[in-house]
């Protein structure tokens, strides 16, 4: 047997060649995977890290006196440090491991949210993913707080005049996507944080569609919470993280009760652990956290500036080439967009187009993208969404364009 | 793989396009005795099915709404197929259509409705083809809830 591969370390940096799944045909065609907004594929370095962890390092953490337990604990805490680096947080103790963006947001709603009172307001926007709407609706139902949603313009940007109008002394929290998952709009989060600060509100940023596509710096942003998922940054499903500013995290009540989140337990009264441990009850997703750490290593090794430039070029090329076809309507035309192209083809329902593209080996998403209020805003049932990642190439766009033309021919439009 | 072999031609037959472009019985019915709404939240398909029943026979049936070519064509074909049927016959037809859409070797001859059989190769589209049928079922059995095919 070969020596175990290091879990963290330099990746292969062969981009498309690093991702074994891209070599498998789908429906007899070369796979053009353009559904990265839903989840990204995994590089060999991440797959190897999973094998290395379970093959060489698996044990429970924070409790064993034995060597392997300490080893696994070290790897787990090193992974937390990698998340800190990714977000440029001041301290790794500001990083809580969660199941993903959705759980991160629910954690905030269920802990910080306990302090809300009737009449308090939470401000979101019309372009949010359901996971940044529904947890706040549930919280409002429990507390009598009120959920407000800033309007979106025809280009798919947050209407900042409406945002400013809705932001007021009752606003306790602003919760907004860094990048719109449905349209790709990069939201002006710096300005949003500044305005929220002036109004005395905290800010949560849903970074699910941002962290794998551009450099994020929570200290420069000055936000209070930042949530993301591992599987959208080339890591495994079921793991993600929540950044919470240290001073705020220290004040949050415990969330789920159980092992690991306590200091001492007695029937007279239990005391709770400090820092992220207080929110990581029970045996956490140790393997997932560590493998996500390996995915972060891979991503940082490739370099987020390089990724952003590559995806920006792909978006420009795809936009230009799609608009050369007849009957194309692009939904979301903001000047600042991440690598997401949402569109409609006249005379072809998104679902029909999705099936036809699938027979060409082109994986896209068709539907409302878990952003039904946004679809309602545009008066459409859904769109077709092509979303790019660091391994996409021009030939993926060739396949997309050819597939759309095939659909138009088939439908006679 | 050629167009002929990727299942697309079987899925999108001319009859499907015809019913998608010119759906039959595509109107609301003011004097319907039964109606139900159907919704597929996953893809946004939404329709309403109307029926006028007399002595357990579907005298008239129509629909309105929007959706993909498969859901619209299936709804249109359904209205043609169930008109004049007894309620039990319409229900039996739904079971046969469902079998045709989901089973490898369905044991039934569905005549014109067989143009929908290409859906079998695309499991993610079965819910598109069955939405109208679920909705009709709800309408004529007087279930109150919106039919869903998530």
Describe the structure.
The complex is a heterodimer of chains A (413) and B (150). With 413 residues, chain A is α/β, with parallel strands linked by helices. In chain A, 37% of the residues lie in helices and 15% in strands. Chain A folds into 2 domains: 15-42 and 305-411, Alpha-Beta Complex (Aspartate Aminotransferase, domain 1); 51-301, Aspartate Aminotransferase, domain 2, CATH 3.40.640.10. Chain A has helices at 44-57, 67-87, 101-111, 134-143, 160-166, 189-199, 218-221, 246-249, 286-302, 304-323, 350-359, 372-378, 394-411; strands at 32-33, 95-98, 121-125, 146-150, 171-177, 202-206, 225-229, 240-244, 262-264, 271-272, 328-330, 340-345, 362-363, 365-367, 383-387. In chain A, the strands form 4 sheets. Chain A has a 7-stranded mixed sheet, with helices on both faces. Chain A is globular and about 75 Å long. Chain B has helices at residues 8-11, 14-21, 69-82, 87-102, 126-140; strands spanning 34-40, 45-54, 57-66, 147-148. In chain B, a hairpin with a 2-residue loop joins strand 2 (45-54) and strand 3 (57-66). In chain B, strands 3-2-1-4 form a 4-stranded mixed sheet, with helices on one face. In chain B, helix 2 packs across helix 3, helix 3 packs parallel to helix 5 (126-140) and helix 4 runs antiparallel to helix 5. Chain B is α+β, with helices and mostly antiparallel strands. The chains are: A alpha/beta (413), B alpha+beta (150). Chains A and B meet through helix 11 and helix 13 of A and loops of B.
Give the SSE layout.
The complex is a heterodimer of chains A (413) and B (150).
Chain A (H helix, E strand, L loop, with lengths): L31 E2 L10 H14 L9 H21 L7 E4 L2 H11 L9 E5 L8 H10 L2 E5 L9 H7 L4 E7 L11 H11 L2 E5 L11 H4 L3 E5 L10 E5 L1 H4 L12 E3 L6 E2 L13 H17 L1 H20 L4 E3 L9 E6 L4 H10 L2 E2 L1 E3 L4 H7 L4 E5 L6 H18 L2
Parallel strand pairs in A: 1-13, 3-4, 3-5, 5-6, 6-7
Antiparallel strand pairs in A: 2-8, 7-8, 9-10, 11-12, 12-15, 14-15
Chain B lengths: L7 H4 L2 H8 L12 E7 L4 E10 L2 E10 L2 H14 L4 H16 L23 H15 L6 E2 L2
Parallel strand pairs in B: 1-4
Antiparallel strand pairs in B: 1-2, 2-3
Helix pairs in contact in B: 2-3, 3-5, 4-5
